[in-house]
Amino acid sequence: MALDVTNTHLALGSLVLVLVILVVLNVVMCRKLIRTRKGREVFVDWTQTLDEVEITVPLPDDKSSKDVECRVLPTSFFFAIKGLKPYPMLHGKLFKPVQSDQSNWQLWPVGAEPGKPRFVKVNLIKQKSSHWKDVLAPEED
User: Fold this and answer.
1) Within a 13 Å sphere around the CA of 37, how many CA atoms are in the beta-carbon half?
2) Bridge-partner residues for 68, per DSSP?
3) CA-based torsion, 130, 136, 140, 141: positive or negative
4) Across all residues in the chain, what is the average pLDDT?
5) Of 69, 76, 68, 114, residue with least CA distance to 94
6) Distance of alpha carbon 107 from its chain centroid, rounded?
C-alpha cells in the first residue's frame, strides 16, 4: 500500500492554515490595548462582540469602587483609579459611538475574598453592530 504524499501534504497544509486562522481570530477577539500617553504605557485587556466592548482593568487590593472614576459619553471615555498613575489610565474619543445610557462598569468577581485578584469590568454597548480596531480612536496630532 503506497502513501499518497501529495494528499498528505495538502491535508497538513490545510490543518496549518486552519490553525493560523484560529490564532488570528483569537488575537482579534482578545488583545491587549497598549496606549502610550506622554511616554507612559497602560496595559488593559479588552474583548468585543459585534454589539459590545468589554474592558478589564486590574484593581489593586487597597482600592475599592469609591476609587474608580468612569465616565462614558456617546463618543468619549474616561477611566481612572484614584491614586494610580498614569491618571487617567484611559481617556479620549471612542473608536465609534456607544449607547452611554446602556453602558456600565462593575467590580469583578462580585464579593471577592480579600487577597484574591479583582478587576473593574467596563461594558460599552455599541450604537451600531461593527468590529472595532481599538477602544479609542487614533490620536490626532
Assistant:
1) 15
2) 81
3) negative
4) 83
5) 76
6) 16
Residue range 43-95, pLDDT digits in tens = 689 999 999 999 999 998 889 999 999 999 999 999 999 998 888 999 999 99
Which residue stretches of the chain are H helix?
5-29
The residue assigned the cell 454589539 is: 51
Beta strand ranges found along the chain (DSSP E): 30-37, 40-48, 52-59, 68-72, 76-81, 90-93, 104-108, 118-125
Which cell numbers hold the place of 2?
Answer: 503506497
**What is the C-alpha separation between 124 and 50, in angstroms, rounded?**
11
| Residue whose grid cell is 480612536 | 137
Which residue, among 42, 52, 49, has the nearest Cα to 72 in the 3D structure? 52
Of residues 50 and 15, the one with the higher pLDDT is 50
